[in-house]
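Action item from last week, closing it out:
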Amino acid sequence: MKTWKVVCAALVLTLPIAGQAASIAEDPVARLDSIVNLNKGQEEEIETLLAESEGKTKQLSRKIQALKIRLGQEIAPDFNEQSIRQQSKQLGELSGELTAETALLQARIQTVLTEDQRAILLKRAQQMQPQADSPKHSQ
């Protein structure tokens, strides 16, 4: 199970953040290709998966942002607790949906990769793991 978590972490490193436009230099398919050497069919399939997911994640991100603004407007001396709780619940549900969409995209990309490519990605993620896990020392 830990192995797949590491692979997913590596995929996260290759994918753009939801709602973030990627420049050509930051193209997630090109970055993944540079790591695992994708074939043309894989590139096209992953590009399709990213395009399908992008529409969903952008829509969810817009809804989340709008809800955060509305929730912020509720913070006042004459606040409405029921409204704050209701909007907070909606925000949690939307955030969960965005997380699920991101995880599903990563899982779908996994199905496109060969076992060797997943092994390369895992090795790359393990190399990066100590950097992510190392504690920051205050100076």
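Closing note: DSSP finds five helices and no strands in the chain.
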